[in-house]
Amino acid sequence: MMLKLNFSEEVQAARDAGLPLVALESTIITHGLPQPRNLEVAQQAEQQVRDLGAVPATIAVLGGALQIGLSRQQLEQLSKATGVWKLSRADLAVAISQGVTGATTVAATMIAAHLAGISVFATGGIGGVHRGAELDFDVSADLEELAKTPVIVVSAGAKAILDLPKTLEVLETKGVPVIGYQINELPAFWSRESGLNAPLRLDTAGEIAAAFQMRCSLGIEGGQLIANPVPQEMEIPASIISPAIDTAIRAAQEQGIKGKEATPFLLSEVLKATDGRSLETNVALLLNNCRLAAEIAKALV
Ligand code: PSU
Ligand code: MN
Description:
Blueprint: E1 5-7, H1 9-17, E2 21-24, H2 27-32, H3 37-51, E3 55-62, E4 65-68, H4 72-80, E5 85-87, H5 92-98, E6 102-104, H6 106-115, E7 120-122, H7 133-136, H8 141-148, E8 152-155, H9 164-173, E9 178-181, E10 200-202, H10 205-217, E11 224-227, H11 238-255, H12 262-273, H13 277-300
Parallel strand pairs: 1-4, 2-3, 2-7, 5-6, 7-8, 8-11, 9-10, 9-11
Antiparallel strand pairs: 3-4, 3-6
Helix pairs in contact: 3-4, 3-13, 6-8, 10-13, 11-12
The structure holds pseudouridine-5'-monophosphate (PSU) and manganese (II) ion.
């Protein structure tokens, strides 16, 4: 079976014209955000990239085809679909060869973006080391992917439902540069503060692009993780989000939610515990990341 990348019309035209491209993931659409808001947010994320003069490529597997960019109609279908697989590195080949529909996580989106020659990718927050991982070993494949695949991932840090100190340690061990954008502290997704230092700091998209190109010149495999703090006016202070996260984690333990279900479950429980406020923050930080990713993409061409 041969792999074929299916480029959307918009992405194909951008490739032909040499325009800057930004990859976007699809798990956030199918597993991370509630319907029907998910479609609206996915469209806003794409539009944000276009408004800054780059071209969005939302990545997903549709009926076994690896799509680099989705048409309006495909995006709409995906946002309403049920039984969509959540695809990480482990699942991608089986999903494509079985002809299923699946949404790509950070790890799988990085793999697809790299195959398509796209070096920048905007998401909300990456997966990481889960709390209690010393017992259940739940460490997201996103971390390993950052160590392997040369793509710049623009995030608002790691999701605060995780164990952030352990996540930073694993990233350091794997040689992944964690770069605070215009900030010394590692942002914690919904909040600007985590109490942890970002190991590195850069202040412009041009510097981020230059560091990435230097990493490639040095022959060091892997990407870069950019930690872009949520805009101040939209952040949820740790004093409010922490108890909501604790409630969500307790609910997951009580209901025995593990593995692939853990992240989507925790995100939806935090949403309930904050009366929907976490969703507005999630959207704001995603759009903020799209803007920075577009600037980096432009600096790379
Ligand atoms: N960020 C969000 N919402 C999400 C995710 C990230 O704001 O739904 C997804 C990403 O696709 C990420 C995945 O790769 O959650 C991590 O899942 P896990 O912890 O099972 O590796
Ligand atoms: Mn996991």
